[in-house]
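Journal club prep, shared notes

We agreed each person brings one worked example of a sequence with its structure written out as tokens. Mine is SVOP like. I'm keeping it raw so we can talk through how to read the token line rather than staring at a rendered picture. Sequence first:
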Amino acid sequence: MVFFGYMVFSILFGLLADRYGRWKILLISFLWGAYFSLLTSFAPSYIWFVFLRTMVGCGVSGHSQGLIIKTEFLPTKYRGYMLPLSQVFWLTGSLLIIGLASVIIPTIGWRWLVRVASIPGIILIMAFKFIPESARFNVSTGNTPAALATLEHIAKMNRAVMPEGKLVEPILEKRGKFADLLDAKYLRTTLQIWVIWLGISFAYYGVILASAELLERDMVCGSKSDSEVVVTQGDSEEGQSPCHCHMFAPSDYRTMIISTVGEIALNPLNILGINFLGRRLSLSITMGCTALFFLLLNICTSSAGLIGFLFMLRALVAANFNTIYIYTAEVYPTTMRALGMGTSGSLCRIGAMVAPFISQVLMSASVLGALCLFSSVCVICAISAFTLPIETKGRALQQIK
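Then the structure, token by token:
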């Protein structure tokens, strides 16, 4: 349901961002996400919990506008280096939440974990004072004075001199039109990007959920724990509830931290790949390797071997996301860049919604069947990436289609 909220509002926020500005939508999404995230910790029932988490998904869907703003400010030669470094901050957040969960859930319960996790989002709202609206967006809407003011501020900060002359660009009235994504020029690119986003998300969340499932069920060498235990749920007033899962032990949290660190392991190679091999070939290679490592998970191995495979899988799926985020932000013109990212993010959540049924339901019945399905999807994405019609390496951002 979190992903359903994300899927619906990702398109809406993309449309609005192309029409009314990236900064406004980014701020609204942060306020929305932080507010409903905090409310979740006070959910009186499971139905309320699911509803509030859906609202959180709606808010989080607008966060990608931050990447759009950054993309539209970065010079062409630095985009391939600076955008992948965002992964470091994503990793930091992932490690922080696992660390907090290992301390908070066993002691004072999940509600306090949600409350503590809401704090950074609330604090970051104050940072919006220092984030400018995209100068490219301002120019496209005819707000040249605002764009000039932003550029002059940047020049002053960098102790540089503004180029001589006037900033002249045509005013683009038609912005954020869904039909533009399916225009003859971008139709094939759009359809292939949607397939890749769906597949990457399916694999990414599949790895994360499979990691928890393999640890939880002790599925090393394909064996499964048959024990059914009674688990105390964080809040004492909620008593005890029989379920088919084990509470994570400290060693399980350590394993999740190790596999999560894998998300940054291939970052240097990923940066080199997208800058020297190009976005398409780099993505095709990492998707192919992802397919291979999904199959390797079925090999009978030790706990250390399983952690190693999960480590590499997390590194590869993170590299996939890095590359497709950059490619999507670069391939579309300013008039529909946010919408292109929004619709891709929406399709992406379909893969995310399907992943739990494969990682946790199908995997319970057939580990090999689940892994083969993940691998097959990755192969399809690798082929789609290799055959993308436009290479964006070294290509200037397009202002109009």
